[in-house]
Amino acid sequence: MKLKDKVVLITGGTSGIGFEAARLFRDEGAHVVVIGTNPARLTSAASELGGDVLAIRADLRHPADIDAAIKETIAKFGRIDIVYANAGAATAAPFDEVTSEQIDEQFALNFKGLFFTVQKAAPYLSAGSSIVVTTSFLNEVGAPGLSILSATKAAVRSLVRSLGAELAPRGIRVNAVSPGPIATPFHGKLGLSAEQVEEAASGLQASVPLKRLGQASEVAKAALFLASDDASYVTGAELVVDGGLTQI
Ligand SMILES: NC(=O)c1ccc[n+]([C@@H]2O[C@H](COP(=O)([O-])OP(=O)(O)OC[C@H]3O[C@@H](n4cnc5c(N)ncnc54)[C@H](OP(=O)(O)O)[C@@H]3O)[C@@H](O)[C@H]2O)c1
After folding, report:
1. Where are the domains of the chain?
2. Which residue range or ranges hold the Ketoreductase domain (predicted)?
């Protein structure tokens, strides 16, 4: 078991990539804490994961919610060994229709929420701990309608290097996993019609050298590598899991 008795905090652990990571990390021996906002998804994730899983409702756009979630985690498990800061969401819009509120909203979750999750968890991490974040293939390619999501992910990519430098003296590694187009509920929440989502998915699928969408479990395996001691000499890096989309 790669994560035996490790305490792992996974934001966005109730759906898609985060949920598959929670399942995999649990199977590798971890005590898992999942964070999300939707009560039904929290209940269902907790019951599917079973065991001593802790499911916490917290809106990461609000630093007070992050404080409360960390406090609850420490009250139950006493420490944190691994943070997988993965929660993210987006609203698609052509650049001439993007509003100030949309920019604030997406940065509030994808960048600030992630930043404060790491900042507030950091005091409870010790040497050998690992932080993994989820970026995106959108760091590397331009996609119409996704300028703000892409900018948030580019900011997170940069943050991985900065935090990697700041936390290296404490023996804490910081890395990113960068998914390509993955079959999860994410695309259905972009504010597009089902037809537009379908069209975008087939376009992307055709552009991916491996000619298919990825599975959440395939990203979870890369996150496991970065989270575990298998990656003990890896920090500041971004592991790309995108079927070759940004690489070939
Ligand atoms: N799917 C893709 O093609 C793809 C590609 C590249 C990168 N990514 C990135 O992968 C990460 C996971 O996405 P996914 O595809 O697994 O999507 P998903 O299935 O929609 O999962 C998103 C998760 O984030 C949580 N979340 C959303 N808003 C939140 C908030 N304000 N506070 C706390 N938690 C919140 C959701 O919980 P609730 O629903 O309970 O709020 C859910 O657990 C995201 O950062 C996304 O940008 C995805």
Report:
1. 7-241
2. 6-180
pLDDT digits (tens, 9 = 90+) for 178-227: 999 999 999 999 999 999 999 999 999 999 999 999 999 999 999 999 99
| CATH fold of 7-241 | Rossmann fold (3.40.50)
β-bridge mates for residue 34, sequence order: 10, 55
164 pocket-lining for ligand 1 (C-beta < 6 Å): no
66 lines ligand 1 (CB under 6 A): no
> 150: Cβ below 6 Å to ligand 1?
no
C-alpha 84/C-alpha 67 separation (Å) is 16
Amino acid at 233: Y
